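explain this:

___
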Amino acid sequence: MLEDGVELPKSRQNFQTYSSIGNLLGRTYVHSKVHKVVLDSYKNLEESYPNKVFMYGETGWKEGGKFKPHKTHQNGLSVDFMVSVLKSGKSVYLPTSPFNKFGYNVEFNTHGEFEKYKIDFEAISAHLYELHKETKAQGIEIWRVIFAPELQPLLFNTEYGEYLKTNLQFSKKRSWVRHDEHYHVDFKMKCKKL
């Protein structure tokens, strides 16, 4: 369960939600500390990568609890981030609509390509770096990142690739749902010392 869940904003200068409908239905609530981590990481990226745009996906209900079709997303500590993409070399939002299950039905190939879109691994790498940096500032942690194992080598071949391999735990096996159009981040609270 989740107490006092906080809704992520629909959009700001460099990010937006995967779906206004998802927001209206209340599918974008997170724990207050995760909320701060997400927003602060996007704010940092405004300065370091001013020409990049980012998109978050589903998170959870305001009070937590079962969140179909996801197996997690029940306590405000799980966030889906849609992959950053390039179109003709320019950072654009992943196309999402009811016709492609709000982006969750987009299928990238092993080169990170789908139609005219190419995954921007540099942007994802920078985003994960900022998320990790902000979790330390907020006194929480990233437990794991679920991302398609066949695409991880392309992610690790970026500016922050070595940092990510050293500091974050990535899924080694393919999940029950392919995570190529989004990367799932599970946060966790640090245990209080007695």
Observations:
- The mean pLDDT is 90.
- The CA atoms of residues 82 and 182 lie 4 Å apart.
- The longest strand covers residues 182-189.
